What we know:
It is built from eight helices and nine strands. It is of the alpha/beta class.
Amino acid sequence: MVRSILLSEGVRDAAIVTEIRRAALESGVELHEVPDSEIERHAPAHAAQSIVAELRSATTVPLNTILEVVKKANGPALLLVTDEVQDPHNLGSLLRSAESAGAQGAIVTERRSAPLTGTVTKASAGALFHLPVATVTNLISAISALKDQGIWTVGLSERAEQSLYGVDLTVPVAIVVGGEGRGLRRLTSAKVDIMASLPMLGSISSLNASVAGAIALYEVVRQRRPATGDETGPSRH
Length: 237
């Protein structure tokens, strides 16, 4: 959410100033008119266009909070789980896709993961303020907690023999996306219920983490609209 707005004193368009003041007043956001030098100090490497918005820091929730949200949801669970996604743009994009696909929450590894800073917030297009996010120190324990709640975990890997398009995603499910380069860690791959791949028909062997995650999340949406298939789900080993 926006904490305050800095507006350059040099802005000459009265209509824009009036509109910004109105929106800030309605939203309860502080607005300060400052010299151009102050704008440049806050955004030295960006085209700020005479205005800067200061965002509140994103807050995370306990894993149990997300599980409670899932219990109260009208439809089957849909969660995003990221395993050491270090690029903030990839993480933000994944959170944006998850929120857009109707996920009830996301679980992010605390270590070796991009911090939930302004870059992630910007890349998420604000989804970070609408999607509950839990950071966990032990992803294996978190996956076990999901399983205890009847949520199936589906990990993405280009090396998996089973196609994602052959997995029943109408059941409660968490899509697990690995980090850049190595993908899911070995222990994570061994812990999830199903490892699935996306068809790669060209010369490139894998997709960007955020792209793969978005495709998987929207495959869940596709299968659930309308929901068809066996609601009992695949066999867990």
